[in-house]
Amino acid sequence: MRRLVLILGDQLTPDIAALRAADPARDVVVMAEVRAEGTYVPHHPQKIALILSAMRHFAAELRGAGWTVAYSRLDDPGNTQSIPGELLRRAAELGASDIHATRPGEWRLIEALDGMPLPVTQAADDRFLCSDAEFATWAEGRKQLRMEWFYREMRRKTGLLMDGDQPVGGQWNFDHDNRKAAKADLFRPRPPRFDPDAVTSEVLDLVAAQFPDHFGRLRPFGWGVTRADALVALDWFIAHALPRFGDEQDAMLADDPTLSHSLLSPYLNIGLLSAMEVCTVAEAAYRAGKAPLNAVEGFIRQIIGWREYVRGIYMLHGPGYADQNALGADRALPALYWGAKTDMACLSHAVAQTRDLAYAHHIQRLMVTGLFGLIAGISPQALHAWYLSVYIDAFEWVEAPNTIGMSQFADGGVLGSKPYAASGAYIDRMSDYCGSCRYKVKDKTGPDACPFNLLYWHFLLRHRERFQTNPRMAQMYRTWDKMDQTRRQATLSGADAFLQRLESGTTV
Ligand SMILES: Cc1cc2nc3c(=O)[nH]c(=O)nc-3n(C[C@H](O)[C@H](O)[C@H](O)COP(=O)(O)OP(=O)(O)OC[C@H]3O[C@@H](n4cnc5c(N)ncnc54)[C@H](O)[C@@H]3O)c2cc1C
Ligand code: SF4
C-alpha cells in the first residue's frame, strides 16, 4: 500500500527518520508551502523566503535521488494552505492510507498530526544528539536542571574535546575567558552572502506579493538555501571567525551586526547542517592549532550544550511551555519593537538590524531586547510571539525556552537560577551603543538617566519577595537598602514616569 512521507520545511535532511523508513519505489514524499505556516505568527519575509527556497531546492534533490515528490506551491490553485489539509488532499489524490512523518519540532504541529483522521506515524527526530527519552532520564529526580551538568554529559557522550574521560585543557568550561568587549575593526572578515539563483528569485517575488505586511526587509536576501551553501558558510566560519568567537561572544558593536558569530543557526535548524558535523570540524580546527580552546569550547557548548538542552526542556515540559508567566508581566509590546522611533540607541540598533537582516546575535537578543522586556514588565507571550516572528532561525522548540525561560524568567527558574536583569552599565561595558545615545548611561536618576538604570531597580523591587532570598541576588537588595532615600525615591518615580510614557505611546 502506498504511504505518504511528510517532509516539513525544517526537515531538509536526506537521511531524516521518515525518509530512512520509506521506500522510494512505493512511497510519495509530500512537501507543502502553506499560508498557515507563514502566518501563525507574522514571520520575517527573509525567513519565509529561506524556507520556501530551501524546500524547493531540497525537493529537486530528492527527485534527483529517485523519490516521487508531491510538492504544493504556495500559489497552487488547489492548495488548502495547511499541513493537515495538504496531507488529506494528497492522500485522496494518490489513494494513500497512512502517513509517515518525523516528529515535528513544535507541539502545535505534533498535535495537528495526532488529530488527523488518517493514521500518522511520527518517528523520533534523531538529528538531535540527545533523545527525548535520554533527556527525561537525565532530568528525573534532579532538583535543578542546570545546563552545565547536562553539557558535561553530552561531552562524555559525543567524545568532543575529551582526552579519555577528562575534558581537554583540564576544565569543562572556558566562559570566564569569553566576556571581552570588542573594538571596531574594519578588517574583521564579513560572513559570506549568497546571490539569489533563479529559484530563490522566484520565491522572493512570491513572498513580496503574499506577505507584504510582515515586519522586516525582504531584500537584499543573502542567505544560503542549499546544503552546499551551508557548507560554504560553515567553512568560512571555521577559517575566519571561530578563532575570535570566544573573545567576542558577548560583545556588541553598532556597525558590526555579526562580529565573530557563526550565523549557522538557520542551517542547523532547517536540517542543512548537522550539530555533530559542525562541532567535529570546530574541534579539528582546535586540534590543528587553528583556533584557541576558549573559542572552540565556547562554540561547541552552544551547540551540544545549550541547543540540545533547550530542546530537551521544551519537549520534556510538553505543550503549554510558552504560556507560562511566573512574574505576572502583562505590559503590551511597545511599538518600538516593530521599528517605531526610540531614543534608546541600543534598542534602536538591535531592532533595525533585526528588520534588515532577520538576525541579531545572542547578546543582543538576551541583553538588549530581552533585558528591556524583562525589566519593563512586558508580557512574555507578546515577546515570545515577537521573537518567533522576527528571526531567520526562529522555531518554537528553541525560541520559546530562550525567551520564556532564559530571557524572561517566565518559567519560574527552570532554565536559569536567576533572571538576566542588569542596568545600563552592562550594555555600556559590552558595546559601543551608549556613546551615541540621547540618554546618559552614567546618570542613575534625572531627566537623562538611562532607562535601564531606572527599570533595573523597579524590576528588583517589584519582585523583592521572590528574589531577595536568592543567594545570587541578595547583595543587590542590600545595596538598595543602603541607598540614600532621596535617590531611591527619584529612581522609582523616574521609572514610573518612564513606564507611563512608554504605555502612552510617547517616543522614549
Ligand atoms: C530571547 C532569545 C530568543 C532566541 N531565539 C532563538 C531562535 O528562535 N532560534 C535559535 O536558533 N536560537 C535562538 N536563540 C539563541 C541564540 O541567540 C541563537 O541561536 C544565535 O544567536 C544564532 O546565531 P548564530 O548562529 O550566529 O550563533 P552563534 O553565536 O554563532 O552560536 C553557535 C550556535 O550555537 C547555537 N546556540 C547558541 N546559543 C544558543 C541558545 N541559547 N539556545 C540554542 N542554541 C544556541 C545555535 O545553533 C548557534 O548557531 C535565542 C536567544 C534568546 C536570548
Ligand atoms: S544609555 Fe542606556 S538606553 Fe542608551 S544605549 Fe546605553 S544602555 Fe541603551
Strand order of the largest sheet: 3-2-1-4-5
Could you give the distance between the termini?
63 Å
Overall pLDDT metric: 96
Q: Which structural class fits the helix and strand makeup? A: mainly alpha
Q: What's the alpha carbon Rg, rounded to whole Å?
A: 24 Å
| Beta-strand residue percentage | 5-15%
Number of strands: 7
What form results from the Cα inertia axes? globular
What low-confidence regions span 5 or more consecutive residues with pLDDT below 50?
none
Helical fraction equals 40-55%
Task: Give the SSE string.
Answer: EHEHHEHEHEHHEEHHHHHHHHHHHHHH
Topology:
Layout: E1 3-6, H1 17-20, E2 28-32, H2 35-39, H3 45-64, E3 68-72, H4 83-94, E4 98-102, H5 107-114, E5 120-123, H6 132-139, H7 147-158, E6 162-163, E7 166-167, H8 198-210, H9 227-245, H10 265-270, H11 275-287, H12 293-317, H13 345-357, H14 362-376, H15 380-390, H16 396-407, H17 424-430, H18 451-462, H19 464-467, H20 474-482, H21 485-504
Parallel strand pairs: 1-2, 1-4, 2-3, 4-5
Antiparallel strand pairs: 6-7
Iron/sulfur cluster is lined by residues 344-346, 424, 427-428, 433-434, 437, 439, 441, 450-452.
